[in-house]
Amino acid sequence: MVITTKFDEVYKMIKEDALNNMGFGSGTSVLILAAPSCDGLCACRIFKSMLKVDGITHQILPVSCYEDLESADEKMIKNNEHLRSIIMINCGGGVDILETFNLEENAVVYIVDTHRPYHLANVLDEQKGVILDDGEDYEILQSLVNEDDDEGEGSMSSQSDAELDGVHSEMDRKKKRKRREAEAYEDRAGYYGCSASSIMYDLACKNRLDTLDDLLWFAIVGMSDQFVHERISRERYTKEIQKYNELVLSMHLSNDEGDARSHKGDRIEVKDEYRFMLYRHWNLYDAMYHSRYIACKLGIWKQNGRKRLEVLLARMGIPLDQSHQKYSAMREDIKDGLRGKLETFGGKEVGLEELCYPSFHK
User: Is the N or C terminus of the chain more exposed, i.e. has fewer CB atoms within 10 Å?
Assistant: First the structure.
């Protein structure tokens, strides 16, 4: 089953199942299976904060492969009468959960997975599997779920043989179309949807828990991780960044009205970022050299590509010894003028036209 709205009801079900189970033993009713990725960890941290506020005991288990899922099933799911909710973060969407897990009668699996496409068995399952989705492919998924094959059955007794043949032919065509749509969906190349941390933050917002410390920051980090690793397009990232920009501004307005946390150290600020690798913790030369974006534009893996990078730094007026200095130790005038020089010398002439992107800083 795929859910794109009513996230508050999903969390309410998890909460009620956990609270109702407390009187029947000391076993934990909530198990979180999280992929050890940046987005997965951020989403896990958001959900963990929500459970902590409501006093719900839980267990967290990292999973990175199918063997980890099988191990989790054997050790923590199979024959576990206390387990009511299994939360799968950035995992589970692409496997048949009914085949993977030996679920007890009252156990339900909730999937928050950025990987696409979903396994059709999870989409069609109406009892044991619940997918929290961003709704991007909702129409496609609904077309696979909704069965119109029974149309006209109620009046078949009064129809002639010719009319019945026409009805059966129409039903056959619909079945074939459904089959083609299902095969086309399953055959789609792997891609990424909304980040799991964004879905979890929406879950927190729906349950009015978004005021907890750092939840918005975790959602921003998880979403930014997708763009940095080129899992989502620039257009989608821009759309997401606009939403978070509004949230950050609204948070600042509420904090400025007297919240003690409004000092600068806890504030999230809108700020452009360079597409360099860890440049604040590294040196400028290596950060640019190991940037995938710059590597593709300059052909850095070739000897001439490395020379092009050094020529670019020279034209920008940055000495090589300064570019090899730790970024925090570089001359302030170089850091202050870096953005303008990159736009002047790294733009259309070199092809680095999207070297900066809107982001956040804390």
Answer: C
